[in-house]
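To: structure subgroup
Subject: Chain for Friday's discussion

All,

I'm putting the inputs and outputs inline so they're searchable in the archive.
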Amino acid sequence: MSPVADITGVILAGGASSRFGENKALTNFLGVPIIKRVAKIMDVVFNDVLLVTNSPEAYEHLGLRMARDDIPGLGPLGGIVAAFDNSLNDRIFVVACDMPLLNAFTIEKILTQAGPVDAAIATHDGIHEYLLALYSRNLLHRLRCCLGEEKLSLRDFCSHLSNVSWIPIEGDAWFNVNTKKDLEFLEKTHVD
């Protein structure tokens, strides 16, 4: 599959990494920073990749286009709004910065099965992965309303959507690192 031109690939890197104790995106997984792995996959799949972060100086070495949250501290919803504000495309594909097992095959599956929907969200084992998902600009007004009302849960936001596809995925591309134990587990069970 050649790189997708009409969807912006978005990496959200605005979290505090409080459970991890340091910036987990910059932590190595099998010798390579997690964010570098994520960026490489997104760069393979998308012509346009945008990193949403409030600490751009930490990620300058990646050479990615970057954007800041309009109002820091509003979680993934705020990051998605910032992504739309900085994207020329009407659809964005959003991933978290802490997904060391992300792969192009999984992203491409979601994109090809999405259809003309407002959101296409990966699902596995009855769990929805809101940060492995395609979102349409049609949602922007609703997203801004939620931020204005301080309703910051992406899960709650998506639960009220009617025009959404839930795309079943296999494997562990969805796995995100929240703690150092998560990272240790992954390094014991995976090899490059």
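Points worth raising on Friday:
Strands lie at 4-12, 28-29, 32-33, 46-52, 65-67, 91-96, 119-124, 127-136, 164-168.
The helical segments are 34-45, 75-85, 104-114, 140-148, 154-159, 180-189.

D.
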